[in-house]
Amino acid sequence: MQRNAVSPARRVLTAGGLASLLLLAAAGYAQGGSTGATSSADAKATKGALQQLAAPGGVNLAAPTLGSFGGSLVEGKATDGVLDLSLDDAIARGLRQNLGLILQASAQQNAHGQQMEQLQALLPTVTGDASIEVEQVDLAAFGLKFPGLNPIIGPFQVEDFRAYLTQSLVNVPALENYIAAKHNFAAAKLSANDAREMVVLTVGNAYLLCIADAARISAVTAELAASKLSLDQATASHDAGVSPRLDVLRAQVDYQNEQQALISTNNQLAKDKLSLARAIGLPLDQAIRLTDSEPYSALDNLDPAAAFTQALKNRKDLAAANEQVKAAEAEMTAARASQLPTVKFSGDFGDIGQTADHSHGTYSATGSVSAPILQIAKTRGEEEVAGAQVQQSRDKLADHVQQINAEIRDSILDIQSAAKLVEAAKSNVELANEALSETQQRYQAGVSDNLPVSQAQASVEQANDQYIAALYQHNAAKLSLARALGVAETNLKDYLGGK
């Protein structure tokens, strides 16, 4: 029986590189004004990728669209040695160099700048002006003629040094626009904090994929050794005239398939390490060695209702969405207040004269009240636009709350399901190895040909694939739950290590 070089279950993990990139789709931050909030669509895509990764029979993953969290700013240069990299080290590097987090920090700075711009409308404005004017006037050009008087006056010089002050005393729209900008800045800061959670999710998943690849390499190496033993047995039996050439050919095909699988798995690990390096700012030519492993550790006593309550307190993106609702409400108030009168004070003080020695101080002070009289369409239009934005932001907030609830429940279901899969797959590995040993002994004793050996080797390979995929799915689901609760950065080890 000839087998493919890569079994369906193995393809689940060799597609892991794409899954690590799919996770980066969660980096898409929808910009609302000057702030950003995690895209629910991207979060769903991420969850779907994690679920598909360990689906029975493998999946056909399409090439994903990379988000900014898949990139980084490279820190330092590659060294000749191998860099030992723990999960904590990888996350720490990501929190310094990940592009998504850096861009979110820039968005926060942009929101602060807009807040300061709106604040200026409420603060006094002082400007200075200095002028020196030299004139010569022809009175005749203005129709002024006086007998005995030269119509040409000048040239003469006027110097004027003056400071101007303007101050809004009552300006409700400007005040509400500033309040809106203040809420937008608060939302930007919260989104930047939430971006740290996304970095942990991205880097953690990329690291877990590399761990799964390394486990797969160990499994394939063991399978290769078993195939070599079967090949040696078949060759010896054939040379002794006990078994046909077909047994040798079958064993050789199995052995070469395992060689191809080892090449493919090593290549996948190298690619997933590149994805990890891209997310944390390591030079791509830097050799790295993963120092952490995440063995199976159960996470029990999960209460969806209690977890949802915890998430409502911890999720920064939810708090950012709430701030955006407040910003939209302030903008709606500003639109309505545009019908109100505004009160402004303006004044100037300066020194004017022919020269600095021949000058005198002058000043003026003006108080003004202005009010719109007839701009019905403009006012109504602004109110409708602002009202629609308020309703949209409220609807998005309500949906985001339910999306978080769904993410928590999905993650808990995945954890519980994956835990059962891990136990079943572990038992299958033990049984498959026992069956392989039995068939090898039967073949060596001449009781049967090596077809059962080949079939048993395929069962061992499939069982190993399913076990590794189940372990990855379990750890990825726990990582997703930590993110859904908003505690990925602070409590990641608690969830990956179990409670």
Report on this structure.
- The protein has 499 residues and is α+β, with helices and mostly antiparallel strands.
- The protein has a single domain (8-124, 172-340, 375-496), classed as Outer membrane efflux proteins (OEP), CATH 1.20.1600.10.
- The protein contains 12 helices and 8 strands.
- The protein has helices spanning 8-14, 16-23, 40-53, 87-97, 99-120, 172-239, 245-280, 304-314, 316-337, 376-444, 451-485, 488-496; strands at 29-32, 35-38, 83-85, 125-138, 152-170, 288-290, 342-353, 359-370.
- Strands 4-5-7-8 form a 4-stranded antiparallel sheet, with no helix packed on it. It has a two-stranded antiparallel sheet with strand order 1-2.
- The longest helix is centred in the last third of the chain and has 69 residues, at 376-444.
- The chain is elongated, with a radius of gyration of 36 Å.
- The chain starts with 7 loop residues before the first helix and ends with a helix.
- Mean pLDDT is 84; it is low at 1-66.
